[in-house]
Amino acid sequence: MRIIGNWGVLVPAFYILFVIVLVSFVVWSTFQRVELVDDNYYEQEIKYQNQVDKIQRTNNLSEKLELLSYDNAILIQFPANLKAQKLSGEILFFRPSESKLDFKVKLQPDSLNQFIIPTDKLKKGLWKLKIDWAAGDSAFYNEEIVVF
User: Is the Cβ–Cβ distance between 123 and 115 less than 8 Å?
Assistant: First the structure.
């Protein structure tokens, strides 16, 4: 009598193996961390129209904000035609995989409309930079993805 060709053994063995894999997957999935992008995302949804207006204003700029990534720094070059206006704002470094690493940096551009951020202490990987900035009375918003 061959065990491989015996259906009386193969069918229950396959069923038991299937149940073990299914139970293992359920146990594994219960230990996975699920994080919301933001704790108060309902409030942010209501305020989103203001964000849409900022993005539209940013898209209408003749010169765009440039982001250059180097080995240990990120250079943000603001449009030259806004040089006469006072620039202000903040940058949110958003880490999609680990929300505890998120942090904000206040914008302080130099006389050349540039802002340099050192990245040597940041964890390697994907970061989304959410740049919320203003030139005079006009507010703008950029999102850039950086991997280093």
Answer: no
Residues 6+ away with beta carbon under 8 Å from 69: 75, 119, 146, 148
Half-sphere exposure of residue 138: CA atoms within 13 angstroms, side-chain side: 11
Nearest-CA neighbor of 122 among 103, 136, 144, 142? 103
Residue 115 has a CB neighbour count (10 Å cut-off) of 22
Task: State the pLDDT confidence band at 139, using cuts at 50, 70 and 90.
Answer: very high
User: Are the C-beta atoms of residues 51 and 58 closer than 8 Å to each other?
Assistant: no
pLDDT in tens, 77-106: 999 888 778 899 999 999 988 888 899 999
Side chain identity at 82, as an amino acid letter? L
7, 38, 75, 116 from 91: Cα distances, Å: 64, 16, 12, 12
CB distance 83 to 53 below 8 Å? no
